Amino acid sequence: MPDLQKLYDAVLSGDRNTAVAVTQEAIATGGDPLELISKYMVPAMDEVGRLFECEEYFVPELLLSARAMKGSLELLRPLLAARGAQPVGRVVIGTVKGDLHDIGKNLVASLLEGGGFEVIDFGADVAPEKFIAAVQEKGANIVALSALLTVTMPAMRTTIDALKQAGVRERIKVMVGGAPVTEQFAAEIGADGYSDNASAAVTLARRLTATAVRP
Amino acid sequence: MPALLTSRQRVLDALSHREPDRVPVDLGSTSVTGMHVSVVAALRDYYGLERRPVKVHEPMQMLGVVEDDLAAALEVDVAGMPRRKAHFGFTFDNWKPWNFNGLEVLVPGMFNVTEADNGDILLYPQGDVSAAPSGRMPKGGYFFDAIVRQNHFDPDHLDPEDNLEEFKPVSDDDVASISAAVREAQATGRAVAASFGGTGFGDIAAVPAVGLKDPRGIRDITEWYISLRSRRSYIHAVFEKQCEIALGNLARIHAAVGDAVDAVYLCGTDFGTQTSAFCSVATFRELWFPYYKAICGWVHANTSWKCFKHSCGSVERFFESFIEAGFDIVNPVQCSAAGMNPATLKQKYGDRLVFWGGGIDTQKTLPFGTSADVREETLRRCEIFAPGGGFVFNPVHNVQAGTPVQNIVAMLDAVKEFNHA
After folding, report:
1. CATH 3.20.20.210: which residues of chain B?
2. Tens place of pLDDT for every residue, chain B, 421 residues?
């Protein structure tokens, strides 16, 4: 079994090659995938989030750590699926219809994955029907909506209204974020939560999951 | 009663930190101080100006040209300098009509679009529809976003030359065109804010190189941000060569336009987010500072131009470095971002930086507030920024599509109210 502290360090420092190599070695020597994630990767990404919030890490460092974490997760995910392991929560995430901006959304998606969530990422310019389908067919229990533009913020309201009309709103929690979005706007459109940065979004998702229906 | 200053003198006073007779106003001089074409059209209607389609001078953001008649109605004090080429690589000529969500606008002849299967509008580099599209506007959308084309990426064999394809020495035609545009702007009697291009170091909007048909190098936005941490020698190599080319271009352009330019918009690289920064000050000083210092240093040593730096977001932490690098002007002064309290900024930097922006919030107040909200915020910002000069009134970044015309009028009325108080 390799020194798993190296996995923690590799995710923290954004060293994808080492993260992947240590994960491969751990798998080959019978390491427990859940333990790799919960004891090393999630704490490493939590620390990345903490460093981001206290402005020791910035967007490049966050992206590098997320990339290292993803490299490792790609190896572990099939093993988890084979065991039938359940994620902390299942999030469907996307930038709303009419908006093509996805850097912020990608950061949130990566940190949610690093935080132990299963993330269904629909990318940008996502129609309300796709979010509804993800709730109905994939059992997502959190819908995370992003918008960068003042002109696309109203599509967040449209999406939430569509979730209501489809009869799935009560089964899920909706979280929103993006440059022009505010806590007040989130409340006005009937979202369950708002965060102004990627790290806080993970904390929010954990809080919302505690009160949401499990996937 | 003393005679009013000319628009140009008013701006020059403000840029020299002398309080002019009234607050100078910019609306439309650059690609970061303008208005969406639909807003320009609505303003023309409001002021009862001749009904004619508005030209788009920046196709990425779909910004509209503020022509002389509208500039007079708005009482703006700054004239822009039309660029010869769009980011998409085509020249601004042979204007043709285009139906933009039901509004007829004028676009350059090589602004060639097709409709994607889902109704999105695709725009092509250099107008070549046989190339892969480089811009996408969602169906019913308001502007284009870059389509990232990262087709030749081998992380183990990166060549900085590949990220320099879009940076070339200016041609004689370029210089002649720039010179003519500057003279035209100067003839308006307003201050001239010029944009020559080529000095935006790592501007994320330019990284995908939408004007190239088959860009090489690092063109993916995430990959570029990651490279700022993991491939610094590569970034230095790109910036160093870009800087060398830019200095040569500035010398040639200056020889042609002389001191007809008052402010030069040098760089739009964003260092701020809504709540934080894209990098640390240490990273900024290592990667950008030397090149900014070289460019601004040359400008100050050889011209009377003032150096204009745009960066959205929470960027107060960089202001001392901006000043040390030689920037005179900051824009858009996003007061809603973390650590960007206008009174604090004025107090700490008001004698060393000109605030060209900060006039009103364009994410909330201007598009969504009432006219009373707009008046109140505009008056408050003028009270903070105007004393002692060092302020050119401009909203925080471009006025977005869908912004109510009455709010823009309320904003301008509030500036006038402040001026006459």
Report:
1. 7-37+67-87+148-420
2. 567 889 999 999 999 999 999 999 999 999 999 999 999 999 999 999 999 999 999 999 999 999 999 999 999 999 999 888 999 999 999 999 999 999 999 999 999 999 999 999 999 999 999 999 999 999 999 999 999 999 888 999 999 999 999 999 999 999 999 999 999 999 999 999 999 999 999 999 999 999 999 999 999 999 999 999 999 999 999 999 999 999 999 999 999 999 999 999 999 999 999 999 999 999 999 999 999 999 999 999 999 999 999 999 999 999 999 999 999 999 999 999 999 999 999 999 999 999 999 999 999 999 999 999 999 999 999 999 999 999 999 999 999 999 999 999 999 999 999 999 8
Q: Packing angle between helix B342-349 and helix B371-385, nearest 10 degrees?
A: 20
3-state secondary structure of A129: helix
Looking at this predicted complex, what is its ipTM? Answer: 0.90
Asked if B226's CB is within 8 angstroms of A64's CB, the reply is yes
Three-class SS of residue B306? strand
Q: Which of B118, B230, B283, B286 to mutate to test the interface with A (most CBs of A within 10 A)?
A: B230
Q: CATH assignment of B7-37+67-87+148-420, given 3.20.20.210, 2.60.120.10, 3.90.1140.10, 3.40.1190.20?
A: 3.20.20.210
Residues A32, A114: one domain? no
What DSSP string describes A137-172?
HH---EEEEE---TTTTHHHHHHHHHHHHTT-GGGS
Q: Tell me how far apart the 2 most distant CA atoms of chain B are, in Å.
A: 70
- From chain B, the residues in CB contact with A63 under 8 A are 222, 225-226
Beta partners for residue B103, in sequence order: B100
Q: What is the pTM of this model?
A: 0.93
CA distance B227 to chain A (A): 8
Q: Are A196 and B274 in contact (CB under 8 A)?
A: yes
Q: Which residue of B has its CA nearest to A152?
A: B141
Between chain A and chain B, how many beta carbons pairs sit less than 8 Å apart?
72
C-alpha distance across the termini of chain B, in Å:
15
B402 touches chain A (CB under 8 A): yes
Burial B47-60 (b: 16+ CB within 10 A, else e): eeeeeebbbbbbbb
The structure tokens listed for B268 are 């739009």
| Pair of tokens at residue B339 | 């650590």
Residue A55, domain extent? 5-83
Distance CA B309, CA B343 (A): 20
Mutate to test the interface with A, among B145, B336, B403 (most CBs of A within 10 A): B145
Question: What is the 3-state composition of chain A as percent helix, strand, coil, each rounded to the nearest 5?
Answer: 60, 10, 30
The helix, strand and coil proportions of chain B, stated in percent and rounded to the nearest 5, come to 40, 15, 45
CA nearest to B280 within chain A: A58
